[in-house]
From TrEMBL:
It comes from Flavivirga rizhaonensis. Residues 1-21 form the signal peptide. Pfam families: DsbD_N. It comes from the Bacteria. This is Thiol:disulfide interchange protein DsbD N-terminal domain-containing protein. Residues 38-151 form the Thiol:disulfide interchange protein DsbD N-terminal domain. Keywords: Signal. InterPro entries: DsbDN.
Length: 159
């Protein structure tokens, strides 16, 4: 077999393997604002909604252990156009004992929600940052780390 045929065969196999590989995305994130018609001086909540595949858990940002599943974290880019009020709050977490890590964990199943209050200090602020998280399957124990950036462009043209 000549070298050109070998290259074509190799490339064809690579395309087939890549096409059949599945990328697991058991957590789908959406970012929303708690209200519209926002004015300078208003307090608004940044809402992070996550849809989880059926057999997956997402770990909360609030945990009471040193070693265990990685908690969700949020980082906000400092910016004088807004002020964070308090911490990111997880909504309706569940709690259970994790036999692997031998600790109690706070987690979500099916869906998750986190909220962060901010005070709007200037006209049309842009709030940026990123989040990191871990999800684990309750079926086979497989865990996946994830991260992404977020951006809230707030229109304050309302009087």
């Amino acid at each position: 077999m000549n070298i050109l045929k070998q290259i074509v065969l190799y490339c064809s196999l690579l395309v087939c393997i890549t096409a059949t590989a599945q990328i697991l995305e058991p957590a789908k994130w959406q970012c929303n604002l708690s209200k519209q018609n926002i004015k300078q001086g208003d307090i608004v909540e940044l809402i992070f909604n996550i849809k989880l595949d059926t057999t997956w858990h997402l770990y909360s940002n609030i945990q009471n252990y040193k070693i265990g599943p990685l908690p969700t974290t949020f980082e906000f880019e400092p910016n004088g156009s807004y002020q964070l009020i308090g911490e990111v709050i997880p909504i309706d977490t569940k709690k259970e004992y994790d036999k692997v890590f031998e600790v109690h964990v706070n987690y979500f199943e099916h869906s998750a929600e986190f909220r962060q209050k901010v005070k709007i200090l200037s006209v049309s602020p842009v709030i940026k940052g990123y989040y990191e998280y871990q999800v684990c399957s309750i079926v086979d124990g497989k865990c996946i780390l994830g991260d992404d950036e977020f951006e809230f462009k707030i229109n304050t043209n309302y009087k």
